[in-house]
Amino acid sequence: MPTPPPSPPPDRTDEPTGRSAVRTLLRLWPYVRPVRVRLFTAAFVAIVASCVGLVIPLVLKWLVDGPVADRDTAGVWLGALCLLLLGVAEAVLFGVRRRLVARPLARVEADLRGRLYAHVQRLPVAFLDRWASGQLLSRGTTDLMLLRQFLAFPLTFLLVNAVTIVVGVVVMLLQDFTLGLVMLAPAVPLIAFSSVFEKRYARASRQAQDQVGDLTTVVEESVLGIRIVKGFGRHRSQARAFRELSWRLRGTELRKARLLATIWAVIVILPETAVGATLVVGAVQVADGTLSAGTLVAFLSTALALRWPVESIGFLLAMCQEAATATERYFEVLDAPTEEQQDPGGRTPAVRRSAARPSPADAGLRFEGVRFRYPDAPPGSPPVLDGVDLHIRPGESVALVGATGSGKTTLTALVPRLHEVTEGRITLDGRDITTMPREELRALVAVAFEEPTLFSASVADNVLMGGDGTAGTAELHRALDVAQAGFVHTLPEGTATRVGEQGLSLSGGQRQRLALARAVVGRPRFLILDDPLSALDVHTEAAVEAALRQVLAGTTALIVAHRPSTVLLADRVALLSRGRIAAVGTHHELLRTDAEYARLMSGRPWAGAQPDASGPGRPAKEAR
Ligand SMILES: Nc1ncnc2c1ncn2[C@@H]1O[C@H](COP(=O)(O)OP(=O)(O)OP(=O)(O)O)[C@@H](O)[C@H]1O
After folding, report:
1. 241: domain range?
2. What keywords were assigned to this record (predicted)?
3. What is the C-alpha radius of gyration for the chain, rounded to an integer number of angstroms?
4. Complex ipTM value
5. CA–CA gap between residue 202 and residue 318 (Å, rounded)
6. CATH number of the domain that residue 191 is part of
């Protein structure tokens, strides 16, 4: 079965957005502002270079009507030298322009990319859940490359060409008004045609850039899931899915090419026709003696000098459209509110003051009537958590047990505010977590998720990122001891060995132990562990548990557990069922008193709870 095409970002549209390309592109101004002097200087240099090119026909006119007509050899040599110097000056000036823009534009691109990355880091998890990763990746790569190209080339050259065309037309009108009007005649149909082209091209370029995002998603997922693809012999169906998407992109690119070819043809044919007409009218005037041959040569040379500025307008407009689409896609992410922007009241001093004196009964971690529904859950589906009440006293550890899909991971994700509770509240030592700055909250709470993610960095960096920045080698080794991660000392460079995606591959159990070390390295006040030992063999698990017990003695912990051995780590057990805490007690108490718990621990099915069958499901990313 081939992978279905990635779902589009929720606000993606293949329909024209009705946006003005100019207004969209103006949003880049804050980024361009710091380098504006260089950009304007470069544009000015390019205009001068272009106008130097327009002087050449005037020298030609002087040459034909003067030295050539008078058979003055010295004058002809002088004219030729002038033409050569003008040509060299034009080339040098264009070279200077290129040097002027290269460095500042690299800076603008880096700024845009840095801003996007920083913003993505601060977006709510719910937002990232809804977006295919390739759509985000393509915004940070292809789209930003299009923007740099736009700032380097079309932006300057649309201006340069416009000025060149205006100056050239004025020069032609001054040389001969009638011929000038003949040359100008195609301007009206050209403008009308360009506006129709702009709309169509905008739609096609949006579609193409979104499809690049889809392709990026498929490539990324195939690389990350290469073991599954190979293990199930799915490379052919994956390739087919990829081919389908790339074929679709090819179709869109061909549509763009057809549009471009049409506008190019119109842009070339109309002025060429006008040049032909001018030649005929001018030749008749020369024959009548009302126009000098030099003026006609100069006129036609000016018209030919304007050929490139006019012809290039088609693809410059196309590049502008692509840049406008890229800008639009870029700001779709940048305009999404960050976690902080979604709750600006979270840092109010009044709240902090009132929260500063918790009553002793509130100490520890407390869930009060917590309800939660995923924002993208199908309408009408029941909430995942439907009134969770649980109090974990300071220094106590509670194991959270429940059927698969009952909402355990969801509940743990609410504590560091990876998702926001829909109703009710969670308090840490009496302070509502929504009134705490996220940084403070996340410094208090450490988490180790079921799926241990390591970054492309050394073992030490991966573990120490769980601390507050002050943890040193001693803390690192203590954390590695707790997690029984002694294997790191056998790695080629010990704790300096690079692991993660671009480093040494570790086994699932090894990665899980490093993730556990990361969670405990900062001696957190509150510890959330989502089935932290699931990938360990029984001996390693027992060793980790023994070491972990010492850590748990000094921290308040919530541990998602599936196995009795993990459950026994905790002081008490809470059973999550149908969105609520159905029972709390010690492992042995619940084994005796709660049938659902007993069956969960024994591995036998229990008819009363089947959250996977009745649960709301995970419509967004999982569906892909
Ligand atoms: N991002 C999401 N959007 C929508 N629904 C989701 C999302 N993540 C999880 N769910 C749904 O929420 C429910 C609870 O999922 P959760 O991962 O919390 O269960 P769990 O108890 O941890 O399961 P397990 O024991 O298998 O890890 C499931 O029905 C799941 O499909």
Report:
1. 22-336
2. ATP-binding, Membrane, Nucleotide-binding, Transmembrane, Transmembrane helix
3. 35
4. 0.95
5. 8
6. 1.20.1560.10
